[in-house]
Amino acid sequence: MDRKLGNVRPSRVVTAFLLALTPGLSAGPAAGQPPGGGSDYGSTALSRHRAANSLTVMSYNVEGLPAPARFGRAASLDRIAAHLADLRQQGREPDVVMLQEAFAGPGARIAEEAGYRYVVAGPSAHAVNTAPAPAAANRFVAATSHLKGEGDGKWLDSGLRILSDYPITKVDRLAFPTWACAGYDCLANKGALIAWVRIPGSAQPVAFIDTHLNSRAASGVAQDRADTAYAYQTVALRQFIAERVPAHAVAFLGGDFNTGRAKVRWHDLGANPLTQSRNSLLDAFASEHTLAQDDRRNMEAILRRAKDWLFYRGNMRLSVTLTGFEVPFGVRADGSSLSDHLGYEAHYRVWGV
């Protein structure tokens, strides 16, 4: 079923808050956007067989933490995989999926069960980044708490996985420095993953960047400490992207950014962590076209939480325009969901200019 964007009326409080924290994200077209401002919100192309220039990208934190961090997650992860497989049967599968907390085990099986031919994972638990801390971080490092999971090595991999129906030609990985984390988050080897994907219509591979940054309250440590770790991670992420993704490359950046309502985190992340990009969620939010009622409600929930973002940019040769928005993994009628995050997908039109 096609779903168009628009008729979105979240509360003014949510609107004001998000626009105050994300200056510039909706101001003017990014590189590769058509002139005159605003995206061309046409009908959502949910099957690439129906529109050769369509591209669907999903970002989803599947809450794949193992016990004792989480109990009873295997069944929900299996249902996530089954739903992705159902979408494929209907010809509505996302072309590229960026997962977070898809750790080894049940989470890692999602890709195979969903039928994706190309799958890459982020840093393993053993691929630690031993880069030394700068002098400015000495006090932060000295306050390491083993009781909170700090300094005890990496028990889990990054949990990052990118699934693609199109060939992945190159992979780049970043593990955040071992010292640049706070609380229980230190037990996972968080970082970033770049998959260069050869999508139809593009002469050059396109960068898909998946990341997961340090949590705040869930880290189990004081907010100031969690926020300090977050700041160091955002520096590492920006440097990684700048070194591995040319400024002129077509790119998508998604993941669990754990920004929330913390202004200090928005400041450290920056309005556009991917330079010259737009925010898919905010662009969909600003649309005036029709949006399915369930998707509208789920969009508002994602916006209120303000953690799951998907940025996109084109270039002078390949234009990328947002055309649709959908939440295949939202809140169900009984109020439950398959993860503590909601999984959404953005639909784009990609064509040469």
Order of helices and strands: HEHEHEHEEEEHEHEHHEEE
Number of separate domains: 1
Major β-sheet strand ordering: 3-4-2-1-12-11
The coarse silhouette is globular
CATH level 1 name: Alpha Beta
> Helical element count?
8
Radius of gyration: 19 Å
CATH architecture: 4-Layer Sandwich
**Helix proportion range:** 10-25%
Beta-strand segment tally: 12
Major pleated sheet = 6 strands, mixed
Q: How many angstroms does the end-to-end distance come to? A: 29 Å
Features:
single chain; 353 residues; alpha+beta; six-stranded mixed β-sheet; 8 helices; 12 strands; 24% helix
Walkthrough of the structure:
The protein is α+β, with helices and mostly antiparallel strands. It has a single domain, classed as 4-Layer Sandwich (Deoxyribonuclease I, Chain A). Helix content is 24%, strand content 22%. It has eight helices and twelve strands. Strands 3-4-2-1-12-11 form a six-stranded mixed β-sheet. It has a six-stranded mixed β-sheet with strand order 5-6-7-8-10-9. Helix 2 links the parallel strand 1 (54-61) and strand 2 (96-100). Helix 5 runs parallel beside helix 6. The protein is globular and about 55 Å long.
Structure summary:
The chain contains eight helices and twelve strands. It is α+β, with helices and mostly antiparallel strands.
Please specify the SSE layout and strand pairing.
Elements: H1 12-21, E1 54-61, H2 74-89, E2 96-100, H3 109-114, E3 118-121, H4 138-142, E4 161-164, E5 168-175, E6 191-197, E7 206-212, H5 223-244, E8 251-256, H6 263-269, E9 278-279, H7 280-285, H8 293-305, E10 308-313, E11 318-329, E12 343-352
Parallel strand pairs: 1-2, 7-8
Antiparallel strand pairs: 1-12, 2-4, 3-4, 5-6, 6-7, 8-10, 9-10, 11-12
Helix pairs in contact: 5-6
